[in-house]
Amino acid sequence: MEIGTMIKALQDPMGIPFYPVLFQVLMVLTFALHIMFVNFVLGTSFLSVYGYIKGDDYWKRLSKSMIRATTANISMAILLGVAPLLFVQVVYDPFWYASNMISGAWVMAFILIMMLGYSMVYVFYLKRDSRGGGFAAFGIGALALFILAGIIMHVLGYQLLQPEKWFGWYISGNSIDTSGTALHTFHIPRFLHFMIPSFALTGVFLMLYAWYFKDRADSDKEYLQWVARMGAKMAFVFTAIQAGVGFWWLFSLPLEFKFFVNPFFLVGAGLGVSLLFFLNNAQKDPFKYAVPAVIGAFLTVFGMSYTREALRMTYLRRFDYSIFDYKLNIDLGSTALFLSTFVMGLIIAGYMLTIAYKSGKTTGEYVPSPSIDKWGKISIALLLAWIVVVVSLGVVTSVRNYL
Amino acid sequence: MYPIWEVPNLSAGIILAIISTFHMLPSHLSVSAMWFNIYVETKSYRENRPELLEFVKKYTLFLLIFAYVFGSLSGVGIWYAATATNPRGISALIHNYVWGWATEWVFFIIEVTGIFIYYYTLGKVNIKTHLKIGWIFAIASWITMIIITGILAFMLSPGKWVQTGNFFDGFFNQTYWSQLFLRTTVMFAIGAVYAIIAATRLKNEDVKRLVVKTASKWGAGGLILAVIAAFWYLNTIPENADLLRSIIVPKGLKTGVLISLFAMILYFLYAHIKPLSIRLVPAVLAIAVLFAGIWSAERTRELFRKPYVISQYMYSNQIIAADVKPKGVKSEADVINEKGILKVSPFVPEGLRNINKDNMLQAGKLIALIECSACHVLEQKGLRPLPQMVKRLGFTEAEAAEGFIDSLGAIPYMPPFHGTSAEKKALAAYIVSLNR
Asked: Are B300 and B245 in contact (CB under 8 A)?
């Protein structure tokens, strides 16, 4: 069967409920946030293990903070991974499912690996100071498992781009391999380009950490100074390495892609290089540059994520596939439900993050101002209003259809 | 049709069942726990009993780890397992309900940020603010149930969706409200069992007594209401499902639900009378009993959806069973019967696309993999093993097996065979070969 025809046959006949561009933007945006937190997980858990083993006062303190951050970072990474996982199945279903089915055992192993790794992080976090020692093994084990999980995701994402090889992987002669136990392809520069930023982004994370706590009355200025400097240095050095790996990846791509003149690539690379210059400047005063560094890092990751999407489009254009040709079955009702809920969710999450932000900067008990308090009341009211609207819609629908 | 992933001697479907049943525990805990927390925290605030917060802290850490490590990962795991088991089924659900899931995800954002902030700000912000975060978490959590129930109920009873293709027609279908009520009541029982576990770790006996007594009331109350909800639910399920419930659901599952229910009510009663005598091990064992009940109930729900993965739309073996005109979707039966399943499926060895004497058994096996393996393993052991069924039916001649294949559509829980007559012969030959 011709590959382009096969892919069209595999596409879901239901079509999609809104224009593909919205799914693409949401997919790339949530992927960018997801991969940032994945990088935070790898970087913070690495620093924590390193600090725990090194054992001097500053490192010990940092190790404790970092592993606590890891627990939240993993949760965020999982949460933010759900959205791109959903959207990739909407617009790239033939590729995603085929790649998954060919390595089915690994797809399931991924879940177990993450559960085990996350549990080990909690053991390392909660038991690290108990007697007996040997808890570093939990940290190291967790880190190894997270890297393995990264390898699995990398392979699934890379197999997806090569439909021309699927038959060869799955079929030999007259028999098929239904075990799903093989990971078939690996691209070192591509993988490294997802891994190296762990250290660059965690560097930025450290700058932010130091900046955040520096104004607290009980803060240790010297320690925070040490953290901020180390963070800025890490961010710069690893961004530089990342740029090198990026070009390695670029030159490893098929020449006919002409990816070096792709506008998305040019913007993404431009953002990366600007970030490098910016981080070089930030060495002078890491505290002052902390917040802009986070914004700059996010913009770069977002730009790079769109570059990755542009690369995927380039790979798949070889088979005449474009998400913009996806069959449409526009459903305005459910699209409106999501978009309005999304705005509402930002308002509510914003309230809670404000409480977290402000209380973390306060040494005693934090009492919010009346306006923030009102924000909280509005948040609860919005949730109740959501229930009222949706349940009413449900009752009207049910009455119309069944009574 | 996508490539097939087989789990020898077990089946991919069982992996999905294990993960999704397991997910019931942390997910329903997550939805119910905060209501209990708010109750205890408000009591602590109103009656000026700060010692009660010891429980809130323990229970929340438990929730944080159990629900947000194992719960969120097993939730993703359901998607992965559904993908690896039935990619076209999950694809159909996602292409209809992507905005439903995306909307649920917004509430996940509120939940995940909420639970961390609730845990880490306990004692660090004033209690009114802390309670507000608790309320936000509790309501947002319950909303995730409002949403996912619609998608789950759709799989059994897509309602008017089949005619209209409308999102909400499929969502608010005839089994929606009863299932929402059922899940809401069960969640309080699950939350209560966990609260008792957290209480066994408390040092203060007064707090332990209060928590166990309250939790056992919530738990027993939840279960009693769940019984009412279950009757309502069974009353709303479609006719075919009701029929299947009486003919194919094994008695063991029904007994499982009843024993678990009875044991749990007794457990809550005992806990209520002797709250201080509950120790960690029996409290954890109670989870196993509850799990057995949930397993039986969920397996029942899966069974009476047969022969479909999405009722009236897609068979368990991923073949589209009926037109959905408003979406421009056509049943695949005609095309497959005319051209052949081995011709229209992409992932078929070229040497098996045309059946001849030499490749007949291989082709038959592949057809069995495509059309039967979702519910029957091809090995001797595992989920409804095909070889054992063939032995029981006693097929020794291909003609007899062919006649049986022809009659499949008349069995209410089996999808009809799809394919050409040559393919039917190949499948029959393969089936008979299993009896040798």
From this structure: yes
B106–A345 C-beta distance less than 8 A: yes
Of B91, B140, B324, the CB nearest to A383: B140
* Tens-digit pLDDT profile for residues B283-320: 889 999 988 898 888 888 888 888 999 999 999 999 99
What rounded mean pLDDT belongs to chain B?
Answer: 92
Same domain, A295 and A395: no
Cβ A393–B172 below 8 Å, yes or no? yes
ipTM over 0.90: yes
Which residue, among A84, A150, A143, A149, has the nearest Cα to A110 in the 3D structure?
A149
Q: Are residues A240 and A358 in the same domain?
A: no
User: Across residues A187-196, what is the average pLDDT?
Assistant: 96
Least Cα separation, residue A10 to chain B (angstroms): 7
Q: Which residue of A has its CA nearest to B97?
A: A334
Count: domains in chain A: 2
Q: Does A179 touch chain B (CB under 8 A)?
A: yes
Domain match, A226 and A266 both: yes
Sign of CA dihedral B57, B62, B67, B73: positive
A190 pLDDT tier (thresholds 50, 70, 90): very high
pTM: 0.95
Task: For chain B, say whether A355 makes contact (Cβ under 8 Å).
Answer: yes
- Placement of tokens 């999950």 in the chain: B90
Instruction: List CB contacts (< 8 A) between A218 and chain B.
Output: none
Nearest CA in chain B to A173: B349
Amino acid A215: pLDDT = 87
Q: For the segment A254-290, what is each residue's pLDDT rounded down to a tens digit?
A: 999 999 999 999 999 999 999 999 999 999 999 999 9
CB-CB under 8 Å, A367 with B129: yes
Domain end residue (candidates: A300, A330, A360)? A330
pLDDT value, residue A216? 87
A296 and A387: one domain? no
Q: Do B4 and A178 touch (CB under 8 A)?
A: yes
Q: Which amino acid is at B233?
A: Y
- Same-domain status, A158 and A98: yes
Task: Please give the Cα distance from A120 to A153 (Å, whole number).
Answer: 20
Would you state the pLDDT for residue B21?
Answer: 86
Averaged pLDDT, B243-260:
84
Closest CA to A16 of A355, A296, A387, A330: A330
pLDDT of amino acid A271: 96
Whether the CB of A387 is below 8 Å from some CB of chain B: the reply is yes
Are A259 and A371 in the same domain?
A: no
Q: Do B167 and A17 touch (CB under 8 A)?
A: yes
Beta carbons of A355 and B125 less than 8 Å apart: yes
- Distance, in angstroms, between B265 CA and closest chain A CA? 31
Q: Looking at the structure, tell me whether residues A310 and A341 fall in a common domain.
A: no
Which of A283, A304, A330 is a domain's end point? A330
Provide the residue range defining the domain that includes A9.
3-330
- Judged by DSSP in three states, A16 sits in strand
> Nearest CA to CA, how far is A342 from chain B (Å)?
6
- Over residues B81-91, the pLDDT tens digits come to 999 999 999 99
From residue B131, alpha-carbon distances to A393, B30, B41, B301 in Å are 30, 17, 8, 37
Q: In chain A, what is the greatest distance between 2 CA atoms, to the nearest angstrom?
A: 73
| Most B CBs within 10 Å, among A348, A399, A402, to test the B interface | A348
- Among chain B residues, CA nearest to A4: B346
Whether residues A245 and A362 share a domain: the answer is no
Is residue B67 a contact partner of residue B198, using CB atoms and an 8 Å limit? no
